[in-house]
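User: ok so my PI wants both of these folded by tonight, can you help

Assistant: No problem, let's get them done. Here's the first:
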Amino acid sequence: MSPFTQHSLVETLQAYKRTSLLKAGLELRVFDALADGPAEAATVAKAAGTDERRTAVLLGALAAVGLLDCHDTEFALPEGGELLVSTGPGFRGGAVKLLVSDAEWDAMRDLATLVRTGGPALATDPGFGYWQDFAAQATFVTKSTVEVFLDALTAWAVDRPAPHLLDLGCGHALFGLLFTQRFAHARMSGLDGADVLPAARAQAARLDVTDRAEFLAGDAFTAPLDGPYDVVVAANLLPLFSPERCAVLLRRIAGVLRPGGRLVLAGFVTGERPPAEETEAHLLSLLMLAWTTGGQAHSVATYRALLAEAGFGEPEVRPVGGLPVRVLVAGTVNEGNG
């Protein structure tokens, strides 16, 4: 690891400015205006509908932090800049609505106070607007995690007659919907807040599986779960709660699984590598510190203990690329993962 220097200190202190630059560039579609090649500030300003001088200041600052290239008076996308072009197939800038949301900025504004006193339980309040954006803007990590999840269940699901999946706290519902899309004999139910479900229904329509998907409004701890289910997925859900609350939820899930069924947990984890190699997971824990009363990115060891306590067998643990993300698949203790 590189030593911490005065230069590192200044970069860290000014990191919010770089973030603000990227957010402004995406909102004004500066990168779209440069998709066809280099252009001067006047051309970009015309495309963005902004003042030329102010646009030139923005472009200069974007170039100064490496988000644009600059040659004489022309600006251009840097190598890899297609990730920021909203009309391109590789666009990843939609993540700004989550990672730079007003809710996150407000939460981090006075972190010292949060450490002293804790934060309000915003994340579990009905109507918390962040989850609507989360459901509509699945991050670039989601697709990779769903693929690992599908691969983990393929051999099991092929021979399972008419598998019924519950996507608990479904959000965008891509775990359940893509399971249903891959396995034509499957169907799914998604449970989440009423304000989140329109995004899930839109995803079902886009994937053409509406006839095999239903959505239920409610709280994972109190809503009737019905069932029984062959698969229950809890993706990015347990970090919202303390281990004690997670234990309650896992016992509830165990009660609605069919014999031979599978529980799948997916999300960021800590404790397997040094913190510097699990950056995203530790930053998630900070957010949970701000938004929940006991949540954080839990360790695989914690999940193993919680699963055993709830009556599940030893989970199969699958990594997701080089990220601190894991997919855990567990059966009930009397049947294991067989």
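One down. Here's the second:
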Amino acid sequence: MKTWLLILSLLVPSAAFAAGGSSVPLDDANIDLTDNASLQRGAKLFMNYCFGCHSTQYQRYERVATDIGIPLDLMQENLIFTGAKIGELMENSVDDEQAAKWFGATPPDLTLVARVRGVDWIYTYLRTFYVDETRPFGVNNVVFPSVGMPHVLEELQGIPTKKYETRLVDGEEKLVFTGEIEVDGSGEMSTDEYDQAVRDITNFLAYSAEPIALERQRLGYWVLGFLFILLILSYFLKKEFWRDVH
């Protein structure tokens, strides 16, 4: 019994950490690691809007290009901005000390963020920035309060604000945040287009966190098939061994 309690005590905190430790309801990212077009769009958006501050230093340009179907020459020409060679790690050129001064903390590497936070957390986080003049960059985030980064996708989404409605609270009518974000329409994308763009980035980060995921799943079916066949053979072998015992 103590062993099971120990196992549960280890699993529960891990699950909470994987979900980002957020009490905010998370939206379903609904990603698809088999969708190379989505992964390519996600790579493009990540490199253009996120890579300036956040590296994915445990990935290599060549591996990414090969895995998601981008020709190496196109990767080198269009998605490598630091002068790195195609076989090098995906490290940006931001100085950590300077970045810490600008943002209050060094922007984290995002290679494993999908495994740490979860894809639903990333998807919801990128969709819930809102205007907050009290913050250094003029924005805050529903999922990550007091966020230290600017809303780098604002030109795509438009200016986001919290949506409020009048509700009766303790016998008084008060403006209450509905949990939704509304935009002013100034963005380059419609709401649906922006949601898809965020989903593409999330998909790419999920791939980066575990590039071998699809191969692992494929091998898993073969392993289960082998174990099933082994079970049948073991059953008949057991019957043969015990046939003359009684």
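The longest strand covers residues 172-183. Confidence is low (pLDDT under 50) at residues 1-21. Good luck tonight!
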